[in-house]
Design goal:
By secondary structure, the chain is of the alpha/beta class. The chain has 10 helices and 13 strands. It folds into 2 domains: 144 residues, D-Maltodextrin-Binding Protein, domain 2; 85 residues, D-Maltodextrin-Binding Protein, domain 2, CATH 3.40.190.10. The strands form 3 sheets. It has a 5-stranded mixed sheet.
Length: 279
Amino acid sequence: MSNKKRFSLLLICMMALVMVLGACSTTKTNPSGGSAESNTAAQLDQIKQRGKLIVGVKYDTKLFGLKDPGSGKVEGFDVDMAHALAKSILGDENKVELKEVTSKTRIPMLNNGDVDMVIATMTITDARKKEVDFSDVYFQAGQSLLVKKGSPIQGIEDVTADTTILAAKGATSIDNIEEKVPGVKVLEFDNYQDAFNALKAGQGEALTTDDAILYGMAAQDPNYEVVGKPFTDEPYGIAVKKGQTGLVEAINKGLTDMKADGSYDELYKKWIGKAPESK
């Protein structure tokens, strides 16, 4: 073969290689493997094939997710939301399996694949958006304080660096209270019920988290009350594993339909006792 023919053959091979590499580069991939387009729908398809939603909810948060020690039944706003989304996505509100999460465990359980989604009084934050994806806001709350009736603490303005505040591990409320009152002492507990028991035992002067959760605690014991105006904006979102845009879209459609047909307002009134405020 002449040098000219060898050069022509080499040139053709190089052009073919460039075309192959170019075609491969147009197919986007993500860390889980496969094309980005196929992976966005993967979780939703898996849920439909399985025939049930696996949802992480809290078991210690009255009004949102509380387990009855006698019956073993878990009830609350978030639990009913899980059933409503099962109806929207799978056509049957009973196709739900609930798993307990806490503020500390909800993101790890989600990313480990233990649950499909987390509906657990979870505030949407920029930091959390780096770890998980969120639905639209499904509940608007604000951080406040729970104290024993007669307490000199009647709002965030009464909290000082000498005050001991109780909170749940993994909650944004810890960062918020430390920002509002630099140097404040915070005792952290694994869950809200443990924090509430500590408040009753006198281990701190106030318990802080979202007002919606605190109202549930106050309903358990009339000796305690929520005081002051909310001092943060806490928009709750439904969390899913990063990149599952198909599932997020399905959740958002369910929320939109609930607000349009009035079932969201009914659910809100059932647990909160009043209609949601118009924005």
